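In the previous chapter we treated chains in isolation. Here, by contrast, the input contains two separate entities that must be folded as one system, with a combined length of 635 residues.
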Amino acid sequence: MLELKPMLSALWRNKVPALLIALQLALTLAIISNTVVIVKDRIAKIERPTGIAVEEIIAINVMAIPNNYDMIGAVSSDLELLRKLPFVKDATITNQVPLSRSGSAGTFYTQPNQEVGGEVSNRYNTDPNFINTLGLKLVAGRNFTNAEMQYFDPSEIRDINVAVITQQFADKIYPDQDPIGKPLYDGNTSHPIEIIGVIERHLGAWVDWSKAGNVAFFPIVRNTQDVNYLVRAEPGKRDDVLKTLVDKLSERDPQRVIKTRVLSEYVARSYAGDNLMVKVLSIVAATLSFIVALGIVGLTIFWINQRAKQIGVRRALGASRSNISRYFLIENSLIAVTGIALGSAAALIVNQYMVRDYSQPVLTLLPLLICALLVLVVSLAAALAPALRAANISPATATRSV
Amino acid sequence: MLKMHNVRKSFRTDTIETHALRDFSLEVKEGEFVSVTGPSGSGKTTFLNIAGLLETPTGGQYLLDGEDVSNLNDRQRSRLRNEKIGFIFQGFNLIPDLSLFDNIDVPLRYRGFSAKERRKRIEKVLEQVGLSARAKHLPAQLSGGQQQRIAIARALAGEPRFLLADEPTGNLDSLMARQVMELLEFINEWGTTIVMVTHDPELARRAHRNIQIVDGQVCDLRPVTEQPEAATA
């Protein structure tokens, strides 16, 4: 049987400690709910699909030692060698390693000599094997052909004729239209680059970039001093392939410095900050919950010790053990509900500030409700042991003079 | 109403066993007003605790209203306490955070009465003890005598057949003590059985019968009028 009215009036007469706990719970809810949305947002970011077969890919950087090295000639031989290695599915050349936080971007337009209204995109220079090597999915149009490849020196300026772009970039630059066959203009130029294919997804170079996923690929190889190859191994064979790569490339031509790194390592480095944020915030939330629980345990034990005689009197007047433990649990729930009400309001206010000034995600009702429930459960769990202890106070306490 | 036969109660620590009650036998009839006296440490409070089902005896038999209550579980004892026994404590034992109305309400809530029934009973007993106008007050706003009257009202609200009073006037001055005693006599006249532990020989003499407890045993069961102190008074 509930005793809400007398319980509330008794709490009102002891409002300072009760209010302190309620405020502690409110603060916890405000912090935890905002922490949860940030953690959830970071986890969603980390887990979003890259479109790339990250676990199967090895990145190789080859730097020629001689100044006049014929890199274009070497590229064809290297790729031919790499593609023939055991357990290698395919290999491609790229100006930058995807997801490595290193890349280049440009602004593209739909009209010649356009100066405003363009869309920024990450750009890769590669060859027709990039789709298979990266494990990308062509969803419209076609891939490059070898005939469309252009090999030239960096000092040369050549017009690019065709491009494959990501679906996301296509949706931005040609919203609600079929992009195949449509032109792209690289900067405010007048030479059209025909969009020949669309791939489902490729996150690009920078995972933190607001336009991550806007990517364009061009069939170009520039004769630079160093090149990057990407090699895709058969599933589970990446590390075996990795062991042989440097030796094989060095054997073919010892005049280069060759470095390798698996793509998953680049990805881990790209998301290191997010992973750290998730861990730190999770620890903060757990520690805060623990401290609040300790506070509740302490306060409940203090109240029970203070009211031991009163509990004995209640027992003498007919309260069963369950009446007593229920009393303290309900009392604790009233404090928790007050704290949750205050905390929900505080959480929403704090969130508005964080959304406005720090571009943090919006706190929606569901995570707020889940956090409120969590705070209530923590609060009740913390009060449970002291409440059960209170139930064991003997009714004979009522007749003791001390 | 109350019948104890060879009731024993001992308390044990690691090294010492204390016998608070030893082969304690007593019968209190329906409607009696019995006073219990004895020196400090004689076992009065232990008797009261066992009689009021606040403690369980170590041995022996205890019949309350014809029912053997020696081996009831906690829930059954709580229910019996709530339904059949009213308590009046020396220190009043009102709950300081609750109004007088809510204090009297405590045992009635455990009884499961409806809000309407509880209000009716509370108003009735407040009127009986002459404190209807103070229902919203807190215990601390009342004098000691008024607090004890509220404690009596709380004990009476459930209409118990058996009232246990532990030094009910122990914290009161003589005028207040007399008023409380008159109230208890009035309650007894209406048929409630009362057992009152007291140190005050004058109050003890006002009961129908006085029991003296010495060393955990009943040593005198004569009616008050036949006892030496009563004869000389």
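The mean pLDDT of chain A is 91. Chain A touches chain B through 26 residues (CB under 8 Å). Compare these points with the single-chain example from earlier in the chapter.
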